[in-house]
Design goal:
single chain; about 425 residues; alpha/beta; Rossmann fold; 2 domains; six-stranded parallel sheet; 18 helices; 14 strands; globular; binds uridine-5'-diphosphate-glucuronic acid
């Protein structure tokens, strides 16, 4: 199948490479010339495990090309819209300008029978509006909404073997020709047993925002429990293990710590609330305001705990922050809780050194005033307190005795509750977790 992928960010670049891997002829399109040049040279414009190897592999087959021109979509039969929908500046709502521009730019190149597949995360109601634009311009083409559930750091595997496929189509009928066409694109996954659900357009859009809202709620729930555990001296990690053994609850996404960040969860819950307000259903989602508030409180809590660790004053204290990315296996610092904490500590007079295996360049662009150090040992040297804020494996594996020899004062705040407190205490460290005695 000939496929175009419009937008080559996290979602589109991975999707284009994976579609080529599945045997399709793919053109990836993006207005960003540098990104396209990188991708055409099999270089990933961001850190994503396995992506560069995959780009190199599929490019030798000749099935994957890149272009900065939307006209390159002409001749493809399936067009995936993968552009970003960031939070609008100064508002909670999503900025749909990239989605609108991509669709309006694409329609002149559509042919009868073509399928436009929306993958971007959009406010409910967007797909119906976009379907009308397609219909007006090329009545024999169709628009289908196929939300994406990939996680950064696992994007290639999540795209090649998704846990479910959701197709939203006007009328929601399995018999729709667009459904058959997309089944051909995803034939390998479907044959491998991936469940596929066909819904109407608004349900498909809602599946995505509801899923991310649920995940955010789960994290804020356990972080609220961490606040209670702190108040009574209980241990939130054991609490999570115990409630997680109930299959109805499940242990995943119950890791208490400094909270969620990234380019998706925070902006998606806010856009969802904004959209519910427009629909007159804002009461239905007022709980998400609390989810957001609990999450943001985590960051201030870590700043306060660090002050306590530093005997009541941050002024002039050398603080080492392990981790800048919003989560491990990513160089993404969008709304990163780790960086946000680092910046707040710096503003309150601490001398902050940040280290991260992959995200330092992006972090330095975002917060140039912080000090960055590539080598973990150098970052730890002479620290008054160490904060583990992104749980990269190399930080989980740190040897407390070796680290003790580097720092000035053996004080560690485990912002992700991933270290063994007894091991660190035995090596002479003052250990603080979040919601752990
Ligand atoms: C999220 C969803 O998990 C994906 O399914 C979705 O496709 C994606 O957003 C998207 O909308 O594109 P992602 O942003 O890559 O994926 O990150 P997550 O793995 O969901 O982690 C989000 C944040 O929650 C991270 O900062 C992570 O550290 C934090 N987190 C996660 C916790 O604090 N505790 C947990 O137990 C789990």
């Amino acid at each position: 199948m000939r496929i175009s992928v419009i937008g080559c960010g996290y979602l589109g670049a991975v999707h284009a490479a994976c579609m080529a891997k599945l045997g399709h002829d793919v053109v990836g399109i993006d207005v960003d010339e540098t990104k396209i040049k990188d991708l055409a040279g099999a270089k990933a414009p961001f850190y994503e495990p396995g992506l560069e190897e995959l780009l190199a592999e599929v490019q030798t087959t000749g099935r994957l090309t890149f272009s900065t021109e939307l006209s390159a979509a002409e001749g493809s039969h399936v067009h995936f819209i993968c552009v970003g929908t960031p939070q609008k500046k100064g508002e909670n709502a999503a900025d749909l300008s990239y989605v609108n521009a991509a669709l309006h730019g694409l329609v002149p190149y559509l042919s009868p029978g073509d399928l436009v597949v929306g993958k971007s995360t959009v406010p409910v109601g967007t797909a119906t509006r976009l379907a009308e634009v397609v219909e007006e311009s090329e009545p024999a083409a169709h628009l289908l909404w196929n939300p994406e559930f990939l996680r950064e750091g696992h994007a290639v595997a999540d795209t090649l073997s998704p846990d479910r496929l959701v197709y939203g189509i006007e009328g929601g009928s399995e018999e729709h020709p667009a459904v058959q066409k997309l089944d051909e694109v995803y034939a390998a996954s479907i044959q491998a047993g991936t469940p596929r659900l066909v819904t109407d357009l608004p349900t498909a859009e809602l599946v995505k925002t509801a899923a991310n809202s649920f995940l955010a709620t789960k994290i804020s729930f356990i972080n609220a429990m961490a606040e209670l555990c702190d108040a009574v001296g209980a241990d939130v990690t054991l609490l999570a293990d115990a409630i997680g053994m109930d299959n109805r609850i499940g242990r995943r996404f119950l890791n208490a710590g400094i909270g969620f960040g990234g380019g998706c969860l925070p902006k998606d819950i806010r856009a969802f609330m904004a959209r519910a307000g427009e629909l007159g259903a804002d009461q239905a989602l007022t709980f998400l305001r609390e989810v957001d508030a609990i999450n943001m409180r985590r960051r201030s809590r870590v700043v306060e705990l660090t002050r306590e660790l530093c005997d009541g004053s941050l002024l002039g204290k050398r603080i080492t922050v392990l981790g800048a990315a919003f989560k491990p296996e990513s160089d993404d610092v969008r709304d990163s809780p780790a960086l946000s904490v680092a910046a707040q500590l710096q503003l309150q007079g601490a001398v902050v050194t940040v280290t991260d295996p992959e995200a330092l360049a992006n972090a330095a662009r975002r917060f140039p005033e912080l000090h960055y150090e590539h080598v973990t040992e150098s970052a730890l040297t002479r620290a008054n307190a160490v904060l583990l804020l992104t749980e990269w494996q190399e930080y989980r594996d740190l040897d407390p005795y070796e680290a003790a020899a580097l720092v000035s004062t053996c004080k560690i705040l485990d912002g992700r509750n991933v270290l063994d407190p007894s091991k660190w205490r035995a090596a002479g460290w003052t250990y603080r977790g979040l919601g752990r005695p």
